[in-house]
Write a structure and sequence with these properties.
Length: 242
């Protein structure tokens, strides 16, 4: 067997779930894209995805349930390959030094992430899409629910995209760069309800998450940054800069 063939066999062995499972995953993302497109083109009063700020806690909880269902689907898929969630996440926080290192590195990464987000938004110009601003939290109960959803997103979306998808694409392509780019694109598409400009922005930011995860060889610091970013972008920055 040639060296190239040996590498291909090794890459297939590195797959964390059956490829038919990944095909179903792509169909799910396709459904999310279609739902996002319809949400953007639904007739509502005002510039937001909803006409008014009502029932947002229910919307938050529905989003969290959707994230956990996708997480469960990935969990089921990797279990078919006898891969545990601990292996998928690469739980490496076995010492205070490692924990402190990952947290310390997460801080400058977050500033890089924020700078990249602002730069890409500026580069792409004005956004004509319906915004989610009307759905951001206002009351104490809504803020608590938002924080819960943000933590949920940090855990589930990182496991799904930087864990499952990135590892599957690495197995298929034998290229870390291709895997990071591919999962970022899918991550962006999963947010189609925010409009195509934001899809592009989120795709690039997802690639940053993927590069950070690949560098640290664990999802834990990326989960922290993701959860913190969602809390900050959806609530905390409005308190800090009001």
């Amino acid at each position: 067997m040639s060296t190239a063939a040996v590498h291909r066999e090794t890459d297939r062995a590195l797959a964390v779930a059956p490829y038919w499972h990944s095909a179903i995953f792509l169909l799910i993302i396709g459904g999310s894209v279609a739902g996002g497109y319809l949400a953007q083109h639904r007739a509502v009063a005002g510039p937001g995805l909803a006409s008014e700020h009502v029932g947002v806690i229910k919307i938050y909880l529905e989003a969290a349930i959707a994230d956990w269902l996708l997480f469960w689907f990935v969990w089921w898929g990797v279990s078919l390959k006898q891969v545990s969630l601990r292996e998928l996440i690469v739980f490496r926080w076995n010492s205070l030094r490692r924990i402190a290192t990952d947290i310390a590195l997460s801080i400058p990464f977050w500033f890089l992430w924020e700078a990249a987000a602002r730069w890409i938004h500026t580069l792409l110009g004005p956004n004509q899409a319906k915004t989610v601003d009307v759905l951001l939290p206002r009351s104490t109960a809504e803020i608590a629910a938002w924080i819960f959803v943000s933590i949920t997103a940090g855990i589930t979306e990182e496991t799904v995209f930087r864990g499952y998808v990135q590892r599957q694409l690495l197995a298929i392509s034998s290229s870390t760069v291709a895997a990071v780019i591919g999962q970022g694109i899918l991550f962006g598409l999963a947010h189609a309800y925010q409009g195509w400009k934001n899809v592009a922005v989120i795709a690039v930011l997802g690639m940053l998450y993927g590069a950070f995860a690949a560098w640290r060889k664990t999802l834990l610091p990326v989960m922290l940054v993701h959860a913190f970013t969602d809390v900050y972008e959806g609530w905390a920055k409005f308190v800090i800069f009001r």
